[in-house]
Write a structure and sequence with these properties.
heterotetramer; A alpha/beta; B alpha/beta; C mainly alpha; A: 6-stranded mixed beta sheet; 6-stranded mixed beta sheet; disordered N terminus; B: alpha/beta; 9 helices; 21% strand; binds adenosine-5'-triphosphate; binds magnesium ion
């Protein structure tokens, strides 16, 4: 292996890709060595996913050259890329929901019998079970994908990609919905692949991951190539400067806000089998963090409060008065907004313009008249889009054409425009670049200062600790512990304490 | 019937006459024969220079389509229109429109509700067809007044004028027989496979069937298939209307008991003759009745 | 910055319009061809003819645009027309003077029928295709039961005017109805909250729900509106053929769907415009009229129409793809 | 934990089977009701009769199951049947002895027609609904052109046997054909790679593409198979009615789609089974036969059928919802 160390497995030179209204890639390059873990970094919309889709045969470049294993290639479709040894985990999860785990993993390479005539299901399930076990998943391979949590689906996607016997595995934000354990699992896998001389391209917005597992990093900004560095030779601020183009001060600049009245009080809220006896309150100006492991049920609690899901018992007291919420419309009317974790499903109408997306929940409020005043409406929408620095050629483009992070900003803009009394943010910075994160944190503080109550669910411990006035920990559908900002400041190892509670400690 | 002159006295020059045909359908077996007869007659007129041209459009049994086609034809300014109406009521406006536009119209095959406003009518009376069927069945089941047995009726598309009239004809005859019972009537929608399916179920349900009256041959043939497959042809009389090719062959082979001939040739040629007479200013018959003929094994050969 | 540039012009969606341009070009091309090929096509009378002929399909297609944008489909149109026809017929047969009552009752009946479709579809979250495949049979059967299979002969002259009369002796009323409904549809779809919600529901039902849209109500409204429009179309058709018939209207949904799809709406929902549908309607009208004028036999008419539907949609896809790549 | 429980039993999908259970119960209930209510229904002869009657719709529905699972739909079935019928008719009219040639030619012709559908749908990535709405007109027109609108009188006794003959004088050949095709369909769908790809394409096209599945080929194959099955059904129908007719088969696609949907397939694609479809086919066959035996009038037959389609699907949805919550 060592003699191959310097040779490039994948070389992409002078790649240019134009989308209508957007030059996504402008003469960029990427060189990946054999057996290295190569990080690809950049702000949202920098063109990372686009370049990777070109490498995997999903998209075709307008210009440029791709060398794979030293030979020039031009993949017409993913099948050719797979055959050549390129496999990819896509940023947007795409499992086939009504097929089993085994069928998903082995799609297009099913073991067969009778000279390839019939699928050998027994063998397929056995092999799948073995693989699942190896990756620490204690699930039958015959369970349908639709029954899995997002994290489990993500693990299956990862397993699928790494078992292709590829020479290079592209991972586009694989950890965005994984918890710590699963992330560790993935890192072990990556180390193993590396051992076998397989190259990995790793895209993530999480600095600490990059620092831990990557050998080199290539940075893009606005579709242009900025540079490639050895990880060992670059520090965090320098890397951020490469990505953002300027220095960033402390990410979390939380300003303390004087807290007002209790906005929402929840008592004994229960949804059978999902969460039990949830009681808490949140005040105007307060940022309330919800910590816990993925799958602990935090999202479900909030979905019930927002009227997306029903609840079985318990009481919601809104601004001092009891309130029954039967639909999201009622919640919105009362001034509750929620940014859900599943942006494609609950956040965006992909085939419509950004104007329409941002305007959607705000139409009722905008005017009581019969007809929409598009001009006034759109002016206001643009204002919010600018506030969140949404990167798009125009606000009349369809939401589908935006990069993942920018889509998230559009959703934030849509709910900020509703100026709610309570904003529930479920993983608000998932997939968002460091610069934008910074802006979102700032906005959160600003809105809190204006008297908005904010509930933030986050699986990123740093974020919860850095932003919250108070932190509630959820374990298996029950509240298990509370931490105040004052404790946070005392500098004890809070992270460890929260994790302990999240794992069910002290019960 | 009465005779009359075409609008205006001018005997038109042959080179200016353009005849437009509004066909009801090109897929209905009877209409195909009618269309063909018209086509032959028109082609002959054209080849000897008596008319300049002719144009045929087919409504595919859709009333609105026929209305649209009539509009288009009026806009084109043909000299005379021959129409085989899709529907008695639905196509009545066409007659009015032609009158308004000053274009003579000859109705062929079946009547519109305002047929008296049309320039001329060439056709047969469908009630008569039903009566012929009914009488034939009565004869087979013991003679008029003494007929005994169970009868089943396969109806066409409900609401269609041929269905209504043929049904009326049956009501006038076999329904009135004291000894005979019409057990059931279901719509086979003029379709062979539908009629066959219904008949199969009837054959399961009724052990004793004496006759089946089908309002067209297509359904009659379907019923016949089912009856033959059940091995009960000897017990069951089947009669239908139209005298399409395979019905006649079947009569000849002694399977189908009878079919009622609606004279497509007579209607087709007759309608073209009348239209030409009108267009060229000659005198013409306002009402031409082309009678139905019962075809049985005895006389089938002369129609093949 | 580029955002600012486009900020000024609004509401009228240029991108979508250019996407529609392709189909408009085909229509123009067809019209030019016919203007040259057929002397009759050139006449004013024929233009009025075409407009008159498309009015019924047009009215239905406007309603169908809403349905399709909302992510649905309605196969029960033909049967609804039959219900409208026999209801009108029954009222007028009883009393030929009751024209207004007959028309209103037909529209209300079809509106309720549409409501029934909408209720089942949204209540049980079922495929509109399946639901209307079933209700289509029910409504057709109901039309037969109401009329006992017979056709009502209509004698009211006032009623006849609706479908056959002309304003100032020149412009058929039915065209005026179509234009009004198209205009109402345009305003509803592009200028009201309801319209925005229809797009949102069709584009992503979950997001619409999570954004506080009352999906149940919007779907109900949309199918009810489809019913009312179909009722109106049914009344015009009944007046045009001057008879109330239970067998009328078979297959009318398919022409309407074809018009909507030719006009650029997506059967996935979320995409479509009224101007696009109007182009689709005109296209189908011009094809039918043109082929009659050219004396194309009905066998070939079907074939030509089939190819034109395919061709129009393929061309449209290729044009809009080229633009997006 | 509940996941673990499922680990032991194999390939036969219990979850799906229980989901289907609801519809099976309805079928059983209907049969029991008819057994009590109708003496005729009890006879063996009538059972054979029903099986014989469903064979044509059944063969089509098997093909349609593949189409619908792959996320498509085919509205051109009725027209394809007409093509099969006139092709058979034309060959046999020329030479009544050419039975084998006629049958093969009809199947091949429909296979090619299906290929055409599949090519346009996958090549231009178009909605199958729109494409087959267009091609349906083309194929029907072609059937008329081939036959010049006439119906072929068939005299070959050998040919007549196909649709009307019985093995050992008891079991109609058409049932045997249906059972064979259903079996082939079952194996193809649940035991082969091709079947896996059909599910994958319908379940998530993008993922199928990203996994290297040759979507183009699979779609082509699926529509071609639909064509061949329809060709076979068309031949049987032609033999049953003993005539080659261009007007035959109108609306057959709707009955087939109804059977598939009643059988639990999702019009979104990705979900469905052959046993489910077989239940759907039986259900429609039993409804049709039962109503004739009970002497339900033509008007009410439609209404009842409509309600049963709705009811079956609604009940199925409610049962499977309750189970999943
Ligand atoms: N299908 C498309 N049509 C038009 N524009 C597109 C399309 N896909 C991507 N873009 C644009 O190309 C640019 C690069 O997008 P890409 O998804 O590659 O960004 P990214 O670096 O992966 O961002 P993120 O970190 O948010 O995932 C963005 O400006 C995006 O809006
Ligand atoms: N559609 C569903 N049907 C059944 N169970 C579900 C469904 N969605 C989620 N669950 C279950 O509900 C529980 C909560 O899941 P969820 O992932 O929302 O938790 P969370 O704490 O919000 O995690 P995250 O960090 O992903 O937001 C899990 O046990 C999950 O398996
Ligand atoms: Mg990306
Ligand atoms: Mg969650």
């Amino acid at each position: 292996m060592s003699n191959l160390e310097s040779a490039f497995l994948l070389e992409m030179m002078g790649i240019t890709k134009q989308f209508p209204g957007t030059l996504a890639l402008d003469d960029v390059q990427l060189q990946v060595r054999c057996g290295e873990v190569h990080a690809l970094m950049g702000e949202n919309g920098a063109g990372k996913s686009t370049l990777m889709k070109i490498a995997a045969g999903q998209l075709k470049a307008d210009r440029g050259e791709v060398l794979f294993d030293g030979k020039p290639v031009c993949f017409e479709n993913p099948a050719e890329a797979i055959d050549a040894g390129v496999s990819m985990i896509y940023q947007e999860l795409n499992p086939i929901l009504h097929m089993t785990i085994a069928e998903n993993i082995f799609l297009n390479r099913e073991p067969t019998r009778f000279r390839g005539l019939l699928v050998d299901r027994k063998k397929m399930n056995q092999e799948a079970a073995a693989i699942l076990k190896k990756y620490g998943m204690n699930i039958s391979p015959q369970v349908k994908m639709i029954e899995l949590t997002i994290a489990q689906m993500q693990m299956v996607e990862i397993i699928k990609a790494v078992t292709f016997n590829a020479k290079i595995v592209i991972m586009d934000e694989p950890t965005s919905s994984l918890d710590a354990d699963e992330t560790e699992n993935l890192f072990r896998t990556i180390a193993e692949l590396k051992e076998r001389g397989i190259s990995i391209i790793y895209i993530s917005h999480r600095m600490e991951e990059i620092a831990r597992i990557c050998d080199r990093v290539t940075v893009f900004r606005d579709g242009r190539y900025i540079g490639t560095r050895e990880i060992s030779e670059i520090n965090r601020p320098a890397l951020i400067k490469m990505m953002v183009g300027r220095e960033l001060s402390d990410v979390f600049d939380k300003v303390p806000v004087r807290q007002g009245e209790v906005v929402l009080k929840v008592e004994g809220l229960t949804r059978n089998g999902v969460f039990q006896e949830i009681s808490f309150e949140v005040r105007a100006g307060e940022i309330l963090g919800f910590a816990g492991l993925v799958g602990a049920g935090r999202s479900e609690i909030m979905k019930s409060i927002f009227g997306l899901d029903p609840y079985d018992s318990g009481e919601i007291i809104w601004c001092g008065k009891p309130l029954t919420i039967r639909s999201t419309a009622e919640a919105i009317d009362h001034g509750i907004a929620m940014v859900t974790e599943d942006r494609k499903k609950y956040g965006l109408v992909l085939c419509r313009s950004l104007y329409e997306n941002i305007g959607l929940p705000n139409l009722k409020k905008q005017q009581r008249r019969l007809f929409i005043n598009h001009k006034a409406n759109n002016a206001k929408i643009s204002e919010y889009a600018k506030k969140l620095s949404v990167k798009a050629s125009s606000l009349s483009v369809e939401a589908v054409s935006l990069s993942g992070g920018n889509q998230q900003k559009v959703i934030l803009a849509k709910w900020m425009m509703a100026s709610p009394k309570l904003m529930i943010l479920d993983e608000p910075t998932r997939g968002i670049d460091i610069g934008a994160k910074h802006e979102i944190y700032k906005l959160m503080c600003q809105f809190a200062a204006e008297g908005m109550a904010i509930i933030m669910i986050s699986s990123e411990m740093e974020e919860v600790i850095g932003m919250s006035d108070r932190i509630l920990v959820v374990h298996e559908g029950r509240l298990n512990g509370q931490f105040h900002r004052s404790e946070i400041c005392e500098g004890i190892n809070l992270q460890e304490m929260i994790l302990n509670k999240a794992l069910g400690g002290d019960k | 019937g009465a005779s009359g002159d075409a609008d205006g006295e001018a005997a038109k020059d042959g080179s200016a006459i353009k005849i437009g045909i509004l066909q009801k359908s090109r897929s209905d077996q009877y209409q195909i024969l009618l269309n063909a007869a018209q086509d032959t007659a028109l082609a002959e007129l054209k080849s000897c220079g008596k008319i300049a041209d002719f144009l045929q459009v087919d409504a595919d049994t859709d009333v609105q389509k026929q209305l649209n086609q009539a509009d288009d034809m009026i806009a084109m300014g043909v000299s005379v229109i021959i129409m085989s109406p899709v529907d008695a009521n639905g196509c009545a406006p066409i007659v009015d429109k032609c009158k308004e536009a000053g274009i003579p119209i000859v109705i062929v095959n079946s009547k519109t509700s305002n047929v008296e406003d049309a320039t001329a009518f060439v056709g047969s009376n469908d009630v008569e067809a039903g009566e012929i069927m009914g009488n034939f069945i009565a004869d087979q089941l013991g003679g008029k007044g003494n007929a005994k047995g169970n009868v089943l009726q396969l109806e066409g598309d409900i609401g269609n004028s041929a269905q209504i009239d043929r049904d009326q004809g049956l009501k006038n005859t076999i329904y009135k027989e004291e000894g005979a019972t019409v057990l059931e009537s279901l719509s086979g929608k003029w379709l062979r496979e539908e009629a066959m399916r219904i008949t199969e179920d009837w054959l399961q349900k009724y052990p004793d069937i004496s006759a089946i009256a089908a309002e067209n041959d297509n359904m009659g043939m379907g019923a016949l298939n089912a009856v033959i497959n059940a091995g009960r042809k000897d017990d069951i009389v089947i009669v239908s209307v139209d005298a399409i090719e395979d019905a006649k062959l079947s009569v000849q082979a002694g399977e189908l008991d009878a079919t009622v001939l609606q004279d497509a040739n007579g209607q087709g040629t007759g309608s073209v003759d009348v239209a030409f007479q009108i267009a060229s200013g000659e005198t013409y018959e306002k009402n031409t009745n082309i009678p139905f003929v019962l075809i049985t094994k005895d006389n089938v050969d002369q129609y093949l | 910055m580029s955002m600012q540039a486009k900020q000024t012009e609004q509401s009228f969606d240029l991108a979508l319009f250019t996407r529609k341009y392709g189909i408009l070009m085909i229509l123009v091309f067809m019209i030019v061809f016919l203007l040259i090929a057929s002397p009759t096509f050139r006449t004013l009378q024929n233009t009025i003819n075409v407009l008159n002929q498309i009015s019924i399909n047009g009215i239905i297609a406007i309603g169908m645009t809403f349905i399709i944008i909302s992510g649905g489909i309605d196969l029960s149109i033909g049967s609804m027309i039959a219900v409208a026809s026999v209801v009108t017929g029954a009222v007028l047969a009883a009393n030929p003077g009751n024209v207004v009552f007959a028309v209103v009752l037909a529209a209300v009946a079809c509106g309720l029928i549409g409501l029934f479709n909408g209720y089942i579809i949204s209540k049980f979250d079922m495929f509109p295709f399946v639901v209307t495949l079933g209700t289509q049979l029910i409504f057709r059967g109901a039309a037969y039961v109401i009329s006992d299979g017979k056709s009502y002969v209509l004698t009211s002259n006032a009623f006849k005017e609706i479908g056959q009369g002309k304003l100032l002796g020149a412009i058929p009323y039915s065209i005026i109805v179509l234009i009004s409904i198209a205009f109402i549809g345009f305003v509803l779809l592009s200028r009201t909250k309801y319209g925005q919600y229809v797009y949102a529901i069709g584009g992503n039902l979950h997001t619409a729900v999570a954004s506080g849209v009352n999906v149940f109500k919007i779907k109900l409204l949309t199918y009810m509106m489809m019913g009312i429009f179909t009722g109106i179309a049914g009344v015009i058709l009944t007046s045009r053929v001057n008879a109330g018939q239970p067998s009328i209207g078979v297959g009318y949904e398919l022409d309407a769907i074809a018009a909507v799809v030719i006009g650029g709406s997506s059967l996935n929902g979320g995409i479509g415009t009224i101007p696009g549908t109007v182009i689709g309607i005109l296209m189908i009208g011009v094809i039918n009229n043109g082929m009659n004028l050219m004396g194309v036999s009905s066998f070939y008419q079907q074939i030509v129409k089939g190819f034109i539907i395919l061709g129009a949609v393929i061309l449209d896809i290729m044009i809009s793809r080229r633009k997006s790549k």
